[in-house]
Amino acid sequence: MELAYIPSPSTGVIHLGPIPLRGYAFCIIIGVFVAVWLGNRRWIARGGKPGTVADIAVWAVPFGLVGGRLYHVITDYQLYFGEGRNWVDAFKIWEGGLGIWGAIALGAVGAWIGCRLRGIPLPAWADALAPGIALAQAFGRWGNWFNQELYGRATDLPWAVEISEGPNRVGGTYHPTFLYESLWCIGVAALVIWADRRFKLGHGRAFALYVAAYCVGRSWIEYMRVDEAHHILGLRLNVWTSIVVFLLAVIYLVLSAKLRPGREEIVEPDRGPAAGPAKTPTDAADADAKDAEAKSEPGDTAPSLVKAEDAPKDTGPTDTAPKDAEAKDAGRADAESAPGTASEAKKV
């Protein structure tokens, strides 16, 4: 008889009248809000504008949800397309089943679209959001607790999670792998924040550090799980995925530090897509001249700011300056003294 354990909820859904409120969905929503909140603070601290992180998240989150579900359905297709299975269950995302690898991959595509529309670099945005994503995973993992899924091997440890008897599961106490991963993700978020402040990570290196650190924890946590999964050379598929992604993240960290050291000086230009084309130096000078003329008094003179096209134009003989008149008279006299004057030419 276990002296202590973590009890599981009797149900993962509460009905508010006809509306079902699912714990799994609440955990994901809370995680998204935390990620956007922290990402917005970090983005502003880097010189970005408030609201940019949320605007791009509008693209990244839906793409991420679709990608996470696709990865889960593809890698665990036997749960939905095997004998006696109903393929319609593949669309029931509220019952659990999101693969973080697919969520990050396709979510990055959505983020890239949003960044392109805002004219900002994707790596800088990813660096700002990296610890927030880790915290979002920490909250999201508690959705597995509500659904009583993705637990580890049987154990009698005081922090074991109690799993009730149900479809495709045997009642008992098991390693709470959801709790292990939640705590690990909190540690990853703290690591990224510390390293970013200490080493001024930029050009996507904070995000790469998050990926590498998460993969380390996911590999040993995944090894403890007992849910059905594909195996390659004796290891679960997600363990191999963790190893490959970890190596790619480390390679990116090393190469990026050599090729693009330091951090971006400007993460969000003042000119956005709706602001029109950038002004040239000539346009800027003309605009300054017009502003100066508008501010000057009627009696003031500002020769250096008056443009040639704004000078008075010749309207007739009475508008000609004295020096111009003298020059014309001198030219007329020279013409008359020369053989074949203009007046004679006119007579002919």
Sequence-ordered SSE layout with sheet pairings:
Layout lengths: L12 E4 L2 E4 H23 L6 H24 L2 H4 L18 H19 L3 H19 L1 H6 L13 E3 L8 E3 L2 H23 L5 H20 L6 E2 L2 E2 H23 L21 H15 L26 H16 L4 H6 L1
Antiparallel strand pairs: 1-2, 3-4, 5-6
Helix pairs in contact: 1-2, 1-5, 2-4, 5-7, 5-8, 7-8, 8-9
Alpha-carbon Rg, integer: 35 Å
Q: Helix and strand string, N-terminal first?
A: EEHHHHHHEEHHEEHHHH
Biggest sheet strand line-up: 1-2
- Shape verdict: globular
Q: Care to count the β-strands? A: 6
Cα distance, first to last residue?
A: 132 Å
Strand content: 5-15%
Fraction of residues in helix: 55-70%
If you had to describe this structure to a student in words, what would you say it looks like?
The protein is mainly alpha-helical. It contains 12 helices and 6 strands. The strands form 3 sheets. It has a two-stranded antiparallel ribbon with strand order 1-2. A two-stranded antiparallel ribbon has the order 3-4. A two-stranded antiparallel sheet has the order 5-6. A hairpin with a 2-residue loop joins strand 5 (231-232) and strand 6. The chain is globular, with a radius of gyration of 35 Å. The chain starts with 12 loop residues before the first strand and ends with a helix.
